[in-house]
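are you around this afternoon, could really use another pair of eyes. what follows is a protein written twice so to speak, once as letters and once as structure tokens for the fold. i want to understand how the tokens follow from the sequence so walk me through it. anything you notice is useful, everything is just below.
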Amino acid sequence: MPTSSLATGKEKRRAGFLTPAQALIEQRDTRSWGMAMQNLRDDLTKLLQAEQAFISDGAILKNAVIEAALNMDARLLELLMQSDTIKAHFFTEVAGALVFDKVKFQDFVSNKAFLLDSYTAFKNRIGLTDGRGDYLSQSRDVVLAWPYKDCVLEGGMTKEDRGRNEVFWNTTLAPDDITRLFEPKVLTGWERWDAEAVAEGKAKPVGAVSEDDNLLIKGNNLLALHSLKARYAGKVKLIYIDPPYNTDDDGFRYNDRFNHSSWLTFMRNRLEVAKQLLAQDGAIFVNIDFNEAHYLKVLMDEVFGVANFQREIIWRIGWLSGFKTAANNFIRNHDTILFYAKHAASLNFNKVYIPKEEFGKRFNDGQVKDLVADLESRGLTKTDAKDVNRH
């Protein structure tokens, strides 16, 4: 049977074994399959565009979607379950339960046929790209990586723990140990301290704990946070964290020799559960110094999402005097607070203004004159100093 020497193997098989009618049916089936895949892509695109965590500058973050799938992210699974087409394609029913095929989903999303523009090497706007041609702003490949990132660090919290080696539980190899670690724990030794108890110097017994009670829990904060989830998940309006700064002169360094890797693992584990505790309109503030601030910013971008970053707050930690002035460089006199929302669109930020009368009391004419005199003594010209007075 004659065939062209340039024909592909598939074309040779068609020429050798398919009648014209069979070839027509195969073409029609191929077109139907292509339309089905296009519909699947369209449905998936619409669903993903509804979740802010997967969108940047109006484009879908393909790698963020893949990472969410591999982590069995609840937000992603809830989205996918909304479409019968997608549910039928990526879920399998086993013993009455739906099982998500994350490998199949990853292969589908990674395919060049999905979000074609994400795989174009040269685009119609300027920007930094990775090795595959994806814009860095649209890629979750550019994330902070460190040893033990896929682990849980228990983190000794007492002075007795200080001398021991830290235990890293791998999320894949030790799931049972992690499950036991995260299970709610019984909190014991309850005491109630109110104004009356403080005055008497004696704690009161605790009969019951209400939603309005303020709780001070002493112990391992990772275990405490997971123990609070059952009651407070999705209800906390604000979280403030003042973690160890990972410096040699911390008053209490938790336990160790935390290097960058173990410190980042320590923080990631706690930030992830803190996010679960936050209400939809909640916010988190983390106080940190220069030693880990930049690592922490990238880590929090990953945990909370870049779109939910609100502000980097700079606050003065003291006065420029004494041994600080001996530094052979610019004098550091501030620390940083990183401010993130759980969901930026839901955050209600209430501005607080100083009443004009109160402001006037704080900065009366005498104080302004003293300030001008002080600035002048420090080297400002008299004209510049008077400009301060006028403003």
